[in-house]
Design a protein that fits this description.
This protein is mostly helical. It has 2 domains: about 350 residues, no CATH class; about 40 residues, no CATH class. Helix 9 runs parallel beside helix 14 and helix 14 runs antiparallel to helix 15. The longest helix is centred in the C-terminal third of the chain and has 29 residues. The protein is globular and about 60 Å long. It starts with 15 loop residues before the first helix and ends in a 13-residue tail after the last helix. Keywords: Membrane, Transmembrane, Transmembrane helix.
Length: about 400
């Protein structure tokens, strides 16, 4: 029987150079928009820090003191109005929580372990948070994912050996369970690290009075470091405690394991929904914008950045998983906020294309590989040989719900 017709996502048939044109154009548009929306008040804010007129104990720190003072003062001003700016910033912070969750999940995929920028996202997140903003997503993060995806597709087409019979450079891309997380401990270490390292500081800067947020904002600015340390520490501790447990050391597929899936994505989705509702309510109950001039300048600058990040992530979803995934992300964003949109879209994205589908597209050799990759019972662990045998016997062969490599 002929398989159902499903269109290939654009990443499969477009050259990488062509795919990268829109992010470059978005980067140019971002730079122009940020320049247009720059305000003299922002330059004066840095001037005050440089002259030690603001947060003296911080601005006097050698070398980086004035810059860090400016960043802290910038976010203090952005949170200064008690209604409108708090509502806007709560939505933005919950969106960042969603983005942080999906990139941390991707860093833990087996297929991304040898890709430095994907497996270790701390540096790129620090640059995004402290300096680069949306430009980091458009020039660094998204191109790195696109490049990795192209390598995955090429590896899947070629199989385990090259045309000369040499062993493939990265067999983990096509053997075993490459879209699985490395261990079940990730389903706890990821949400715990994000909750403590990012969400807790974010709640503090939202809820505390503006004159008491200097230290919380300073701590929050370096959230990629805290999230990374906590992620590695909690995972190592769990693997040590449960090292003799038959399930914990094994890879597992997050999106087909209900409880780990809920644990991983619950916090950013709920925070996004709550902040989305709060912003809508304040727009109706407080129609007058209570932001002063400096707060308007800072929140406008942040909003422009995040709008371009959102457009870039939406393009990312479309290129790698097709228009349906991008549409799901967009609809959920409208209904429950961008943080929920990116998380739900990412869950949908994982099941948008099945491994057996790529097997049908790439021929018999890829179909055999698809059985090895997709014939895993993620709820029972994922031993490569045993699962491959199951797939050949037909007991647990790949289906339309079998997750595909990115």
């Amino acid at each position: 029987m002929d398989p159902p017709s499903r269109p290939l996502p654009p990443i499969h048939h477009l050259n990488l150079e062509l795919i990268l044109i829109p992010p470059i154009l978005l980067a140019i548009a971002t730079a122009l928009s940020l320049f247009t929306h720059s305000d003299t008040d922002l330059y004066m804010l840095y001037s005050q820090c440089h002259s030690h007129a603001r947060i003296g104990w911080l601005s006097r720190v050698p070398l980086f003191g004035p810059l860090v003072c400016f960043l802290v003062s910038f976010f203090q001003e952005a949170l200064l109005s008690p209604v409108r700016s708090k509502g806007i910033m709560s939505v933005i912070l919950s969106y960042v929580a969603g983005l942080l969750t999906i990139t941390t999940v991707e860093s833990s995929r087996i297929c991304n372990q040898s890709a430095f920028f994907l497996a270790f996202p701390t540096a790129t997140w620090l640059i995004f948070d402290l300096v680069g903003g949306a430009l980091v997503w458009e020039i660094v993060i998204i191109p790195a994912f696109f490049h990795r995806t192209k390598l995955v597709i090429l590896a899947r087409r070629q199989g385990t050996t090259t045309s000369e019979g040499e062993e493939a450079a990265e067999p983990e891309l096509i053997l075993g369970a490459p879209r699985h997380l490395s261990t079940l401990a990730e389903s706890i270490s990821i949400p715990v690290s994000i909750a403590i390292g990012y969400i807790l500081p974010s709640l503090l800067i939202l809820l505390l009075p503006s004159d008491k947020t200097t230290v919380p904002i300073l701590v929050w600015l370096f959230f990629p470091v805290w999230v990374s340390f906590l992620h590695q520490g909690v995972r190592t501790a769990l693997l040590h405690v449960f090292r003799d447990h038959p399930t914990w050391p094994r890879p597992f597929h997050l999106e087909t394991s209900l409880l780990p899936l809920v644990l991983t994505y619950a916090a950013p989705i709920l925070l996004s929904l709550a902040s989305h509702i709060y912003l809508i309510v304040t727009l109706f109950t407080h129609p007058h914008d209570d932001r002063k001039e400096m707060t308007l300048a800072t929140t406008r600058f942040i909003m422009v950045n995040m709008v371009f990040v959102g457009l870039t992530v939406l393009y990312w979803a479309f290129i790698e998983a097709g228009w349906q995934t991008a549409l799901v992300m967009l609809v959920v964003t409208v209904l429950a906020g961008p943080g929920a949109g990116v998380c739900v879209g990412w869950i949908w994205r994982e099941s948008a294309v099945g491994v057996d589908w790529i097997g049908r597209r790439f021929g018999p050799r890829a179909a055999v590989i698809a059985v090895a990759v997709g014939g895993t019972g993620s709820r029972r662990g994922s031993d490569g040989e045993r699962d491959g045998e199951r797939g050949q016997e037909g007991g647990n062969g790949p289906s339309e719900e079998t997750p595909l490599l990115r």
